[in-house]
Amino acid sequence: MRYYYAEHQAAYRRLGREGMTQWNDLFGESWTFDDFPNRVFLESVLDRLPASGEVLEYGCGTGPAACFLAARGFRVDAIDLIPEAITLARRFAQERGVTVNFSVQDVCAMPVGSKQYDVILDSYCLQSIVTDPDRAAVLAAVRDRLKPNGHYVLSTAMYDSDRVYEDDFRYDATTGICYERSTEPADDAVQLDNTWYLPHRRHLRPKALRAELEANGLQVLSQQGELRGDVICTPTRRG
Ligand SMILES: C[S@@+](CC[C@H](N)C(=O)[O-])C[C@H]1O[C@@H](n2cnc3c(N)ncnc32)[C@H](O)[C@@H]1O
Questions:
Q1: Residue 128: what are its φ and ψ, rounded to 5°?
Q2: What is the pLDDT of residue 237?
Q3: Helix (H) or strand (E) holding 135
Q4: Distance between CA 146 and CA 234 in Å, rounded?
Q5: Ligand 1 pocket, residue 4 CB under 6 Å
Q6: Ligand 1 center to residue 105 CA distance, Å?
Q7: Domains of the chain, with CATH numbers?
Q8: pLDDT tens track for 160-199
Q9: How far, in Å, is the centroid of ligand 1 from the Cα of 48?
């Protein structure tokens, strides 16, 4: 099982059991399904986007951002790795009377497909996809599925000097990788000082995130937010 699966599966099982509606409820934060963390950023970019374009959201979770865009006239395909998340997402969309094409899919292993999108959205998924090859796979999928004038709208967690990494976690400032202690040498585990760790998060500084996006064929149009993790990109013109 890949490092990004178990934590997310456990999270959505708990969400379902405890009647929560979206990821941030797990941390007792005061967001609601309709007032989700990157809503203000999304609202601020709407005037850059075509009024009723084709959207792909990956890592959609229970679907708050996908529903927000569908309710505004976008045709939305939304994918998540975890079946329990997609089951909840379908229910919440139906309750709101909005149509979103939800499916279970790993963004790191998307089949090559011809569908192209006006907008590809990431609402806090990318920081959970940690290793260089996995992040390159995600960004290649984004670049290949964006129309030439399309927009990649990304909200991701960043390095924060105020964040405290608890005892079971280890932050590598060179790479921005946060590792979590693992009880066994599972798939993807690495050994650091005789202890097994799994990749857990990638918390980059703003310049490193920008460099990564540009190295993967995405031109950064704007990078904003307190920690500069709200980004809009377009594909770099080829040739
Ligand atoms: C922090 S949660 C955010 C969920 C949702 N976008 C929201 O704002 O509530 C990150 C999401 O990314 C999903 N995810 C992680 N790795 C993924 C992958 N490789 N492919 C698709 N989804 C993934 C997780 O299952 C989880 O739903």
A1: -85, -10
A2: 83
A3: helix 132-145
A4: 8
A5: yes
A6: 11
A7: 6-159+207-235 (3.40.50.150)
A8: 999 999 999 999 999 999 999 998 888 899 999 999 999 9
A9: 25
